[in-house]
Specification:
Keywords: Repeat, TPR repeat. By secondary structure, this protein is mainly α. The protein has helices spanning 11-24, 34-43, 46-59, 65-77, 81-94, 99-108; strands spanning 2-3, 9-10. The mean pLDDT is 84.
Length: 109
């Protein structure tokens, strides 16, 4: 509880503190490390990118669309077309409205 100079309490700051505490307890966003996946892939740090992809897929219980997308891109670059196709199909299952996933599936056929 905050006390203002006139001796009254500031209920607004108390409410803000409670909201801040609630926000801190929320689970992390599924896509919070997508930027790092992108950076590692662009830099050619494929080994660390693949490990991060596995970690992100595990943390998200298989719900991170971008991790599967990047996995598919890397697998296709490595010539593993069937595995890449499966990764892109998983992306499509997670978000059937994303046209880019369909394009990547077509590139694997």
């Amino acid at each position: 509880m905050n006390i203002i100079a006139n001796g009254k309490t500031d209920s607004h700051s108390e409410n803000v503190r409670k909201v801040d505490e609630m926000l801190c307890n929320e689970p992390a966003s599924v896509d919070r490390l997508n930027w790092l996946l992108y950076i590692q892939h662009v830099r050619g740090e494929v080994t660390s990118c693949k490990q991060l992809i596995k970690d992100e897929i595990a943390k998200s219980n298989g719900k991170n669309e971008y991790a599967f997308y990047k996995e598919g891109i890397i697998l296709r670059e490595e010539g593993k077309i069937q595995e890449a196709l499966e990764a892109f199909q998983t992306c499509h299952k997670l978000n059937s409205g994303n046209v880019d996933n369909v394009k990547e599936i077509a590139k694997c056929l």
